[in-house]
Amino acid sequence: MDTEVTYNLFRQGRDPAIVCAVPNDKPVPRFIRGPAWIFESTMALGVDSEAGFDPTLAQAAANANGFYLFVSSRLPEVSREATAIELRAAA
C-alpha cells in the first residue's frame, strides 16, 4: 500500500530562499534544530508544491541524506523585520 509522502519544510533564517524539506518519516537533522532554521509548514506531494521543489530530487536526496535542500523562488509571508528581530533574540 502506497502512503502519501509529506515533507516538513524549514526555512533558513538569514536567507529565507533556502528551504530544507524533511520527509515526515525521517528524523529532523541536527543542523535544523538550532535557532537558524524556522519551521514553516508541511507539504504533501502533488497537493501544494513549494516553488523550486523537485519531487524526484527530493526522494533521491531524502533516501541518501534524510533531507532535501533547495532554493525556493517564493519567499515566506513573514516580514524581513520580524525575521531580523527573531535572529537578534536568538543571538
Overview of this protein structure:
The chain is α+β, with helices and mostly antiparallel strands and 91 residues long. It has one domain (6-90). Helix content is 24%, strand content 27%. The chain is built from two helices and four strands; from the N terminus they run βββαβα. The protein has helices spanning 55-65, 80-90, and strands spanning 6-12, 18-23, 37-44, 68-71. It has a four-stranded antiparallel β-sheet. The protein starts with 5 loop residues before the first strand and ends with a helix.
List the main descriptive attributes of the protein structure presented here.
91 residues, alpha+beta, 4-stranded antiparallel β-sheet, 4 strands, 27% strand, globular
Strand order of the largest sheet: 3-1-2-4
How many DSSP-defined strands?
4
Question: How far is the first residue's CA from the last residue's CA?
Answer: 46 Å
Order of helices and strands: EEEHEH
Strand content: 25-35%
Number of helices: 2
Radius of gyration: 13 Å
Summed up, the domain count is: 1
